[in-house]
Amino acid sequence: MDFQFVLPTTNAELLNSSGDSYYVKQVYAPNEIGERLRACKQMVQQGDPFYMFDHFDTYFTIIEGRGCDPATITNLMRSFDLLYITVDKLGQRLAPILSCSDVAQSLQDRQSYLNLTKMALFLQVNTVRRLDSVATQAQQQQQQQLQQKKRAKQTETLEQYPDWDAKRGRFLVQLYNILQFPIEKLWNPPVAEENFVNLVCDICYRTLELVHPRSDNRHITDTVFQIFGTAIKRYNHALTFPVRVLQILRTTEHAAVSIASGINVLHEEYGISSVFSVLIKDIVETLTVDSADTAVSRNFSNFLMELATIAPKLMIPHLSTLCDELLNCESHTLRNCILQIMGDAIVGELTSEELSEELKEARNEFLENLLAHINDVSAHVRAKVLQIWNNMKEENAVPLSFQLKVLCEAVDRLEDKTSSVRKHAVQLIKSFLERNPFAAKLTLEELIKKHSEECEKMEKLSEVLAEERKKADELDEKWNVLIPVILPIVEEHLKECTEDLPENTQENYEDMIQRISGLLLEKKYREAVVLVRKADQVAGNAELRHTLKLEEQCAYYMALLKSYIFLANGCKDSNEELGTQIKTVQFLQDSIEFSKVITKAVPKIQELLLSKTNSDVFEAVDLFTTGYMFGIKGTEGGMRRMLYLVWSSDKEKRDAVSNAYKKVLFTTDQTGRAHAIKVVQNLMRFLAELEYGHYTAMECLMREWVSTDDIDVAIIQVLFERFTLKLEGTSDNESRLALQLLIMASNAKSSIASANINVIETIGLGDRAKSDPRIYTGCMEFMLTSIDSSIHSKFYKRYEPDSQLVQKVTDLYQQFFFHPGVSDFDRLTMRTLEFFFHLCQTPDVICQKIVVALLKKFRDFAVCTTEITPSQQAHSLETPFSQQIPDSQATVRNSDAMNAQQQRMPVFLLTRFLFTIGYMTLKEMIFLDIDVYNNMKFRQELTECEEKKKKNAFNTNRRKTGNLNMSATESLKRLSGTAAEPQQEPDEDLVGATAEDNIAELINHICENVLLYSENALLAKIFPYVMEICKYPVKYRDQSLQQAATLTLIRFMCVSSSFCEANMPFLMNILSHTKNIKIKCNIVIGLSDLTFRFPNIIEPWTGHFYSTLHEKNTELRLTAVKMLSHLILHEMIRVKGQIADLAMCIVDPDAEIKNITQQFFKEIANKSNILYNVLPDIISKLSDINLNLEEEKYRIIMRHILGLIQKDRQVETLVEKLCLRFPVTREERQWRDIAYCLSLLSYNERTIKKLIDNLQHYKDKVQIDEVYQSFKLIISNTSKMAKPELKAAVAELETRINECLEVNDGKTREDKEGGGEGGGGDSSTGRAETRSKRTNIKSRGAQQARGGRRERRGKSSTSESSSSSDDEAPPTQKQQPRKTPARSVQQQQRNRVAIVDSESSSEEETAQPAHSGRKAASAASVKSRQAATASKSSVTENKSRTGPRSKVIEESASSDDAEQQHPQRKRGRGNRK
After folding, report:
1. With contact defined as beta carbons under 8 Å apart, do 67 and 89 qualify?
2. Is 268 exposed, middle or buried (0-12, 13-18, 19+ CB in 10 A)?
3. Beta partners for residue 864, in sequence order
4. Which of 264, 353, 862, 1054 gives 903 a disulfide partner, CB atoms 3.0 to 4.6 angstroms apart?
């Protein structure tokens, strides 16, 4: 052979001739290639691979082609197939030649095979490379076409050759087979040249870059790394391999999985691990320099994690290096990777107890790193580490010594600001609860009690052990004395009896021990020695004795004798028992620590139930559900707290709660009736644990479960069996619980009650009800649910007033009324009266008969004071005869009346009577307003239709006016235009308006003028007695009586507007002076109801409403917050500056008040511009230094409220208003507050310019460090991720502020040099302008106030009402027009001053409608007079408005001297004109 083939660096080198090196002599035209390939095919079929020398140029022409047309692809595939066969033939030729080492080949043959091998593999590798290039181009073109959404004509690509992947795999296998030959023998010396090895390996590297790992091409990856293994082991490829692999990992994301599995192949099949060490070192060096590159970090992290999963043993030795170098890098992806590898290594290889000390130390180091990074600066890492710990806990890979540490950290992460961290923290805590090694089913108190008991046992055992040791020491001394006596006997016996003693099968080992002990106590040592040998032989130790020498046998038997002597003297070894007890105590101690941590976590997880983030809610629900099902103590409260989510506006949250309760209550391992019984048992147990506030939410869930048939017929049947006591083993309490569940179910499906009405009547009015009034009350409620709520007509069959059922109910109620032992009589009365008004005809007649009957029976219970016997006096402790029968003021005091004054009535009867009258009055008003009104309207329609005899007209008219759920009050308001309902069309609703108006006016006339004012009205005769009790709280001291009387008064006021207006001053007087919290709460709730019914009358008294927000009692504040938020959200109270009092509840100590207030402000923030309009007033009032609000609390409030302002236009205007407040405030604290509020807002270019334009208002205030820091915070926050225009504006603001600082510093120095005149921030001109402006504003306010007073003395004004800020209320905001008092002008002036100038608090305070709200409501008359003396101008300005109300409060004050004379509260009737 006269040439040699040199592998070219580039293919173009083969086109040039160089010495004896082979070169391409001819490049064929495309039209010649087909014919040349056919010639090649003929030569291949002949089986001689050396044809390659003549046809190399043909293949070279094909691989050098640059086209992607179908002909080119076809030629490439044909050439690949021919080359595959050629290489196969070459392998067949090489096998015998290279395997025969004895026969020396000629130089010519060796060179020929070497050239052939290099030429064939060169062409084959380049053909595969060319095919891969064509495939890549085709994929890119397809992606572009998909992006452009063009349907181009399908081109012939490799997709038409679906077997290409299979061919590639066969090619790699063929390549691997070639390398298995000792082809290095072809070279001289026998070392394969580097270019040849690189040629073979290069196509393998390219394969890793191109082939995405799938389950069906795993063999390709394995073959590639088998080639690498051969190249590394035999062809010195170890230096190149790490470099190329590192390069692929940097640029190719999908290669991480393939390379990781390949590294494992190299390790397991070829024992190559040094390459991996080099690779790890290179990765660390690369990441240390370039860790900020997220793509590189992600790719390397994927590789390391995949390898750690596949081969953890290979990773563990390198983890220390990775930890030291990479755990402190910037990339959170890398930190996550290293920590994940640690977790996998611990789970996979480091959980055994038989680890070496080195591995234990490594495991503890990994655990410490994982524990430390729970508090990593990156939220991604914190979440990942918690997830790793969770996985380790599920695999039981967390050592006991780390469990409490990890749990404590997880509990702390519950307050993390990132939702994903909180999510994984809850999941980790859940895993600890599910797999806790402690007694988590016991409460903390039970654990502490049990721990103390076990500690006492341990101390006693310690004492016993000390006594045993003392006794053992004494026995040791005795034994030492006996040794000289016993040892000779043992030696003598052993010498005499060398053979085994004959066995005595009749005596067992235990009996022998007892005999030995007895012989030793009797000092019969020789017999004892003989018996010891027998016992030892029976125990099976004869063979062991034969192996011992004589001296050893003596020592052996002496030891046995010693133990028997100790046993005979009652000496026990309690060391083992003490050790067990110590472990028990330690276990309980760990349980206590575990329980404390869980107890700490539960409130935090309960707070997550109210989170805005759904993931928090879902995880918390899941945890409490799991804990409850496991029976873990502490989770019951969370399950009850979950019920609040039933009212959530988010459907996903509602569904999560419903599914959780279904999982807890309806999941059983039984079927059929057994399943129903178990479900009922679960429902009753859960209901028994509910608090009163959760009952309504449970009703909502029951309604859903009934509608979805989760509560089916079988469950209802079991509930009825429980209720009727037919199910064996049912207790009375279970019967009542079943009744409550049936009531809930019947609310959703009325047929449950209506189909079983006879059963309900029998039990509800039978012997069980007489002995247990709760059954009676429940049955009344159950019967009420038989009314189908879906019937809009509200007309259904009612009981006749003289029916037997009504008579039974009436008689039973009267019996209950006079029985002193009836508990919860109020609820019983409510259900009874609801039964009359909803299910009976003429309920007013029935109720009047009951009242008359009660009054007649009262005389039998009235006892004269002279007739009270000692036994009655003793009984009066339970049923006191403590109240006189009250007389009205109009009663003539004759001799009979004087005698009646000496009579006493049991308090409970009078209290019950007043409550009955009050609730009866309320139900009567509702009955007239809705039932009677709708009935009369329906009857009128029927009459009109009969007259017209037009059925179609009737149907049409009924469709328009037949809204039979309407009340007479709503109809009057609608028709008068005072409360139009937005959801109804006015034109349609006003059809038949005349008839509706007549009926509604008649109902209104009855309520206003008949019920309470008619001479023959029953309520008019009873009312004076109610007022008598309310007026004289000292005379009628019983608190329950006062509560009932006040509640009855409120209910009377709900009936008539004139009655309400006349008694409002008296009711406010009670609210101000009573100490009874329940009375205060009732009045607050009553004010809410009165506001809905008579908004114009209640509006002037809202100041008293707001004043209750500052009461010390938590229950009262909570009631006030609920009522006020309810009224404001329903637009029944105009939102004014007084809402600042409600804003202060955001920092209330009570969590429930805080949550309700925060939710309230979120709601009004969604209602147009309401919150924005009152925000200046809120800021003004809360910034008042006289309020003494702590700065931290102020910031919490404003942070929450200002965070709800999102509209850019609102923020812009708010910035300007806040800046205008700087020059009109004089306290540094106020400047700090304003600056802090500005720092809370989000800024755009326009708002920054507003700050710049208003710089003159605060340029002197930035000298204060806190104010400057707030502006600095604005600048830094706005600069982040800002656009160039915004950055320029921020830079300008920063420059201007810095200039102000320099100017202020210069002015300060000048002031100091000039003697310190003109201190403060403003210049003299500015101060003069400010004073002038303030003076003008106050003078205008005084003129308008005088005008307002003149206007009030004239006709009452019904002019337009003013807004609470400069901005007009939005047109979409609908408010009920109210009679606006003449103070509207003054109100406008107050609002204007609140925005521009809030320094003076006197104008704001005197403008409050309820005489300064909170202060007037809680001040005594003496303080009021002192305040009037100190602030004469303020009193003068408000005299016409607040004087009468102040007079009411002053007149109502009682003194100690007047207390004995039963002072009367002034009703104040007529005080207000």
Report:
1. no
2. exposed
3. 903
4. 862
What DSSP line would sit under 1288-1306, residue for residue?
HHHHHHHHHHHHHHHHHHH
Does the reported pTM lie above 0.70? no
Contacts by residues 218-222 (CB-CB < 8 Å, ≥ 24 positions apart): 218/261, 219/169, 220/165, 220/168, 220/169, 220/172, 221/258, 221/261, 221/262, 222/261, 222/262, 222/265
**Tell me: the pLDDT tens digits for 994-1045?**
444 688 888 888 888 888 888 888 888 888 889 999 999 888 888 999 999 9
Q: Are 722 and 775 in contact (CB under 8 A)?
A: no
Please name the residues in contact with 132: beta carbons below 8 A apart, sequence gap of 6 or more. Answer: 206, 210
Residue 329 per-residue DSSP state? S
Q: How many CB atoms lie within 10 A of CB 143?
A: 10
Q: How far apart are CA 1141 and CA 1105, in angstroms?
A: 11
Q: Read off the tokens for 963.
A: 């809204």
- Collapsing DSSP to helix, strand or coil, 501 comes out as coil
What is the distance, to the nearest Å, from the Cα of residue 1120 to the centroid of all Cα atoms in its chain? 27
Amino acid at 1099: E
The encoded tokens of residue 395 equal 């695999």
CA–CA distance, 1191 with 1238 (Å, rounded to integer): 15
What does 58-113 look like in DSSP terms, one character per residue? HHHHHHT----SHHHHHHHHHHHHHHHHHHHHHHHHHHHHHH--SSPPPHHHHHHH
Mean pLDDT of the region 1172-1182: 86
Contact present, 222 and 145 (Cβ < 8 Å): no
pLDDT category at 894 given cuts 50, 70, 90 is: very low
Under the banding of pLDDT at 50, 70 and 90, the label for residue 1185 is confident
Lay out the sheet containing 863-864: strands in order across.
863-864, 903-905, 883-884
| Per-residue model confidence (pLDDT) at position 791 | 55
Residue with tokens 């502006």: 1271
Rounded to whole angstroms, how far apart are CA atoms 118 and 98?
A: 16
HSE toward the beta carbon, residue 1216, CA cutoff 13 A: 11
Alpha-carbon distances of 494 from 519, 534, 541, rounded to whole Å: 19, 12, 15
- What are the tens digits of pLDDT across the range 1408-1439? 333 333 333 333 333 333 333 333 333 333 33
From residue 1147, give the alpha-carbon distance in Å to each of 44, 1105, 1156, 1176, 1196: 92, 19, 11, 19, 7
3 state DSSP class of 863: strand
Structure tokens at 1230: 């106020």
Integer Cα distance of 1466 and 766 in angstroms: 48
Q: Dihedral of the CA atoms 861, 862, 863, 865 (nearest 10)? A: 150
User: 382: closest CA among 414, 341, 344?
Assistant: 414
Q: Provide the token pair at 673.
A: 């009736």
Q: State the DSSP string of 183-220.
A: GGGGSSSS---HHHHHHHHHHHHHHHHHPPP-GGGHHH
Pairing of strands 903-905, 883-884: antiparallel
CA angle 958, 975, 1098 (to 5 degrees): 130
Residue 337 near residue 374 (C-beta atoms within 8 A): no
- Residue for token digits 């109910």? 809
Of 815, 996, 843, nearest to 912 by C-alpha is: 815
For residues 842-850, average pLDDT: 92
> How does pLDDT run across 684-725, given as a tens digit for each residue?
988 988 877 788 888 898 988 998 888 989 999 999 999 999
Whole-number Å distance between alpha carbons of 1433 and 1428: 9
DSSP symbols for 540-551: T-HHHHHTS-HH
| Sequence-distant (≥ 6) Cβ neighbours of residue 23 within 8 angstroms | 14, 15, 16, 17
Mean pLDDT estimate for the chain:
77
